[in-house]
Design brief:
about 375 residues, conserved putative lor/sdh protein from methanococcus maripaludis s2 fold, Elongation Factor Tu (Ef-tu), domain 3, OB fold (Dihydrolipoamide Acetyltransferase, E2P), 26 strands, about 20% helix, elongated
Length: about 375
């Protein structure tokens, strides 16, 4: 404590009373230890640990069906272009249908004529059968009438088949989307003449992305079909997309690893062949004890954490050997050695030992 020093001075005219405070250091706080190491503390907490494994692969088109003309014809109109999202059955383009309509009309006329001819032949046969009951018609006449009905019936079936083919060919003048998806390429223009089989469009399905990700042998028994995954373009995009493991197969080469095929819905600016980074979930644990990774200190042949028990601001720390689980740059899972809500030393832990006196840093209390 600072004590005042009193000094008297006199002069012929007045007396001056001066009080000087001697220089001294402040009195130590009874609750603080002079040599205590200042530290930063954080509490261990319970949370869900999602363990992931990282891999890199190039994306592939899930499928890219070619849409081709199914009949000959001149392109009359194009309804959709590159980038359009369409549903299965959507008309992408229309061919000139004039010739195909004429073929249908001719086939329909032939079928109608044969249908009428068959009706006449059937009535004639019915009439002859009635007359034959009075034995006024020979058996050969009846047989000829029956033959005529059968032949006309077969001719009608053939004509109807030709009509149905003509109808289908007419419908095929519309080039339709075979799947739900996006138009990736257009190979035709209005006015082009297309032969049957000529390529018109290339499409990409809605769920069009997949990427094979190789993993080492140690992950072979961890991965399962249906596991979730997250993907992003390596070095180019910070946005993560969700995906799913749809197939597992032995890795090409020595066969000791495993390749997980991840399917996902890519944005339009992700082309096939893009280099992707993938994080695949291999395990999930609820109520795991987590601490900041910097609180875990490596000592020879063991790992320790310094626990500051109680709620005081100063005191000795406890050095505890811990068993760690999954670890990231920020957090580490503690399997044994620390309980949830205990205070652990974060900043300065590497300089401590068991029983070191510490105090909570100002501003961190």
């Amino acid at each position: 404590m600072c004590r005042p020093l009193y000094i008297w001075r006199s002069s012929p005219f007045f007396v001056v009373f001066i009080v000087l405070l001697s220089a001294c250091a402040p009195e130590e706080d009874a609750d603080e230890t002079p040599d205590a190491t200042p530290v930063l503390l954080e509490r261990a907490r319970l949370d869900t640990v999602v363990e992931t494994e990282r891999s890199i692969g190039r994306s592939e088109a899930f499928s890219a069906p070619i849409v081709a003309a199914q009949v000959d014809g001149q392109v009359e109109e194009i309804f959709h272009d590159i980038g359009d999202q369409v549903e299965a059955g959507t008309v992408l383009a229309k061919l000139d249908e004039t010739d195909h309509q004429l073929e249908l009309d001719a086939a329909q006329a032939e079928a109608d004529a044969l249908s009428a001819q068959l009706q006449l032949a059937e009535r004639e046969l019915e009439r002859l059968q009635q007359v034959a009951e009075g034995e006024h018609v020979s058996e050969s006449e009846l047989e000829m009438a029956r033959t005529e009905v059968a032949a006309t019936r077969e001719q009608l079936k053939s004509a109807q088949s030709r009509r149905d083919v003509a109808q289908r060919r007419l419908r095929k003048t519309e080039i339709l989307a075979p799947i739900d998806g996006r138009i990736d390429e257009r190979m035709i223009s209005e006015g082009n003449f297309l032969a049957a089989g000529a390529e018109a469009f290339r499409m990409v399905p809605q769920r069009s992305g997949r990427v094979p990700l190789p993993f080492p042998e140690r992950n072979a028994n961890q991965l399962e079909v249906g596991f979730s995954a997250r993907l992003r373009r390596l070095h180019e995009d910070d946005r993560w997309l969700d995906g799913e493991v749809t197939r597992l197969s032995p890795s090409v080469g020595d066969g000791t690893g495993v390749t997980a095929v991840i399917e996902f819905d890519p944005p339009e600016h992700w082309p096939a062949g893009a280099l992707l980074e993938g994080l695949v979930e291999v395990d999930r644990r609820e109520n795991a004890v987590l601490v900041p990774s910097e609180s875990v200190v490596a000592r020879p042949e063991r790992q320790v954490i310094y626990v500051f028990p109680g709620e005081s601001e100063t005191g000795p720390v406890e050095e505890r050997e811990v068993e760690v689980g999954y670890r990231t740059q920020e957090l580490t899972e503690i399997l044994e050695g620390v309980n949830a809500d205990e205070r652990v030393v974060v900043d300065g832990a590497q300089y401590l030992s068991d029983g070191t006196e510490v105090r909570v840093r100002e501003g961190d209390r």
